[in-house]
Amino acid sequence: MTLSMGVSGGISEETAGTGEVIFPEGFVWGTATASYQIEGAANEDGRGPSIWDTFSRTPGKVFAGHTGDVACDHYHRYRDDVAMMADLGVQAYRFSMAWPRIQPDGSGPVNPRGLDFYDRLVDELHGHGITPLVTLYHWDLPQALEDRGGWTSRETAERFAEYAAVAYGRLGDRIATWTTLNEPWCSSFLGYGAGVHAPGRTDPGAAFAAVHHLLLGHGLAVAELRAAGAAQVGITLNLAPISGDDPEAVAHIDGLQNRIFLDPVLRGEYPADVVERARRFTDWSFVRDGDLDIIGAPIDVLGVNYYSPTAVRLRAGQPANPVHPGSEGIAFVQGDEEKTAMGWSVKPSGLTELLTRVSRDYPGTPLIITENGAAFDDVLADGRVADERRIAFLDGHFRAAHAAIAAGADLRGYFVWSLMDNFEWAEGYAKRFGLVHVDYASQRRTPKDSALWYREVIRRNGLQA
Ligand SMILES: N=[N+]=NCCCCNC(=O)[C@@H]1[C@H]2[C@H](O)[C@@H](O)[C@H](O)[C@@H](CO)[C@@H]12
């Protein structure tokens, strides 16, 4: 089954908020994870160090000094985890491959034991009738490449395409949908601009160079995957609807959050207003003739990660938000909506707004929600996690996604973040996004009430009244 296969069947009448909601026939329901967040086995079977191994060992960068050394020990427990997904009725599974497992130095010699793991994982998935969707890069850049400039260097883009070809060569016969990058916005603006993610650099100019080389890596990898015969290729972007009374402030943040990625990938050009505003930080000399043609090569599916909307307003004297270069005078504000354990506003209608905007402004590319979910302060008691807030969160967002489909969005699937609690980057293990609870001391998995609820959603292909 390919994930951007056409869906058929009508849409039931949209009942706002409470009624029965049935998704189109063939709609794909899945869960998502990422290599550094769940695998562990950081120094096993030839895996090389990544920038997150380095960053998590840097004092003060990650909550309580947590690292991904063990994480959910998925590297050893993958069979049970796949069986657990099958028991939950999960139809598709989005996971990432660890580049440092496959090429420990990010280039040159391939580590066959690294490929062997993904071989075993994919065969286990198929054995349970679960469709794999792979992310080639979910932030664990080989440290050796960072030592040579990382994503600020064009060389990294070129090495990424080689890695994509190696991965496809071993697994292309069993994985139909290949996405290149997860959230280049995080890799660039959090990793090189604000320094709150690996590699921890705080240089806006470097962030813009990283944006470009991440996108160039995407484009070069798409070319390799196409040449090798990949059925579906795509990319995953974290996007957000931007609201506010001041059009210039909204345009500025929409440009840095959304259009700086959507326009190159889907239109083959950088948004002119973003290019101009960024000239304070970069001369864009890293862009070479032909790069945008490479970046803008057609894709088959766009992965959309949505968590929360962004609201901005002008505020005199407001210093720039380091995540958003040049945002002096722009305040990021939150309404009185419910907040998750991450402090993020819960606004399902933001998903409808986002999906309809992307469909309107960038028509013609099927969409998949590759991540949506929430962290709450889950409590395991008597072998159960009664995570009613997560059920309500997902119910609302599923209905919002359905409303977007009813409004014409070509949405093909939905992957809940995350299958299980895992290493939440700078928050370490303090934040739990999983449908399944993980006791890290024992590595015991316990499906939360939301997992059991999701099983019924999948079985019904929709929501009850
Ligand atoms: N306000 N606000 N912010 C909304 C989101 C900010 C950007 N962070 C993400 O999207 C990351 C994405 C990542 O792929 C995954 O690896 C992370 O575990 C999840 C949860 O954090 C999300």
UniProtKB/TrEMBL annotation:
The keyword Nucleotidyltransferase does not apply. The active site is at E371 (nucleophile). It is an enzyme of class 3 (hydrolase). The keyword Membrane does not apply. Its EC number is 3.2.1.21. It catalyses: Hydrolysis of terminal, non-reducing beta-D-glucosyl residues with release of beta-D-glucose. It holds the Pfam family Glyco_hydro_1. It comes from the Bacteria. Keywords: Carbohydrate metabolism, Cellulose degradation, Glycosidase, Hydrolase, Polysaccharide degradation. Belongs to the glycosyl hydrolase 1 family. PANTHER family: GLYCOSYL HYDROLASE (PTHR10353), LP05116P (PTHR10353:SF36). This is Beta-glucosidase. It comes from Planomonospora alba.
